[in-house]
């Protein structure tokens, strides 16, 4: 999703530019000012509470703003993202917004800040007050609102600067010129968007082969928890010795060990278009862990492709591999193979249901030649990448 926080003091032109941006990028528009004025116009209990505050140019409580914003977000799932106008205004609200977006398994893509001198802001707001008759556009209240902005809102810039999401935009000049600057910044943001793919499916579905092919084609970094664990075992590291016995039984390795390995890979290999996760997450808890790992890099899971084939076909493939030089320690018997397939059904299938609810899941037919399967996967991934951008 493309989620933009449009920043700037009163009179910077956020409302005008917002309308143009939401039309161009098909975004839901969330203006805290509009939401509050709507509540007042409708005479709701909440509207009556904030009427006096808005008249004085004060800030409404975070609890009220969260209630309004969350209600708006829930009804905007058909859009490609959200444009926030007038929120967050404080550091606390910045954290609140992160929490709200976390519920949608997404995050802020960028914070665009319209920069305008105080003298120009005052002139604009006085003119607007003459035309609109808004009670908060008098010179005395304008001075107070700009002071409020500098004291409480400006520090939010630092919050987004630390995350490399802050983009200052010169807000003085013709409206089309300012819009062009904003659009250019958004296009650059879209180019930086990571696409993180979970490649799932039961043992024998061909995830390893297809994952490597996809990584080469789309410049992703391929992370296979199984491969990472086997490297540790081969090197006879302390960690490898711990997991060898677990893998020989066909059981899942502890989350603590898997997290350590994945996080290490992500830190080292971060100059790519995204990651492909093969063999992770395998449980609901691991899906939460992956969200946490990605969120530390201001990312999330973009899409999930589940390779699927009939159980008999999977058993045949695994049995054949078990009798080849590519045999794994958990391919040595039919009993272990069946155990691993059962593990997938009981522990990993629910993860796929979770991603289905998030509209991020698709099943891809894993029957056919490697080339045929890869063609299906490539087409699916390309479509998902276009949609996400």
Structure description:
This protein is of the alpha/beta class and 389 residues long. The protein has two domains: 191 residues, Rossmann fold (3-Layer(aba) Sandwich); 192 residues, Rossmann fold. The chain has 17 helices and ten strands. Strands 2-3-1-4-5 form a five-stranded parallel beta sheet, with helices on both faces. Strands 7-8-6-9-10 form a five-stranded parallel beta sheet, with helices on both faces. The longest helix is centred in the last third of the chain and has 24 residues. The mean pLDDT is 87.
What is the secondary structure topology, with strand pairs?
Elements: E1 2-7, H1 14-25, E2 28-31, H2 32-41, H3 45-55, H4 62-74, E3 81-85, H5 91-103, E4 110-115, H6 118-132, H7 139-153, H8 156-161, E5 166-170, H9 175-192, E6 197-200, H10 207-218, E7 221-224, H11 225-234, H12 238-248, H13 255-268, E8 275-278, H14 284-295, E9 303-308, H15 311-322, H16 334-357, E10 361-365, H17 370-388
Parallel strand pairs: 1-3, 1-4, 2-3, 4-5, 6-8, 6-9, 7-8, 9-10
Helix pairs in contact: 1-9, 2-3, 6-7, 10-17, 11-12, 15-16
